[in-house]
Specification:
- The chain has 149 residues and is mainly α.
- The protein has helices at residues 12-45, 48-77, 84-89, 96-101, 107-128, 134-139.
- The chain has one domain (12-135).
- Helix content is 70%, strand content 0%.
């Protein structure tokens, strides 16, 4: 091997962040599916236990997305080119601020950011909307002509 050849070795923490981000995103998808079905089913059948699951699911969704997006930002900051998104959209010579803001500058990162913004809104309703009726909190929207029970 030539002496001037530099080997790019990733630490075990970089690999853990990469795997943790992928796991958190998968966890978010499962929680989002549960949140899409369980509270609406509870509102339809007037089951208070299912309607009461909406805030916990919204907060779980928010936590999973914040950690997934944090792992993506960390991968960009440490130049973890084993992550395909970072390998295609970053380089090691970028200033730090461009690495951080560049995470939402591509298709995958911007979709993740929009999901995070929606999860922030859902988490805000879950945390600060305690005075709202439970059927409204379960649906998070009212169609014209319908009033929450």
């Amino acid at each position: 091997m030539p002496k001037n050849h530099k080997i790019n070795v990733f630490s075990i923490t970089d690999i853990i962040h990469h795997k943790a981000g992928a796991f958190q995103f998968k966890q978010y998808a499962v929680i989002a599916g549960a949140q899409a079905v369980l509270p609406l089913l509870g509102a339809h059948t007037r089951d208070s236990r299912l309607m009461a699951s909406a805030p916990a699911l919204a907060i779980g969704q928010l936590i999973a997305l914040v950690s997934a997006y944090g792992c993506l930002i960390w991968s960009a900051v440490v130049d973890d080119f084993s992550v395909l998104n970072i390998a295609e959209n970053s380089n090691s010579m970028k200033p730090l601020i461009y690495k951080i803001t560049g995470t939402w500058g591509n298709h995958e990162g911007s979709i993740l950011l929009w999901c995070l913004i929606l999860a922030l809104c859902g988490g805000a309703v879950a945390m600060f909307g305690r005075s709202l009726p439970s059927s409204l909190r379960a649906r998070r929207r009212i169609r014209p002509g319908n009033r929450p029970a």
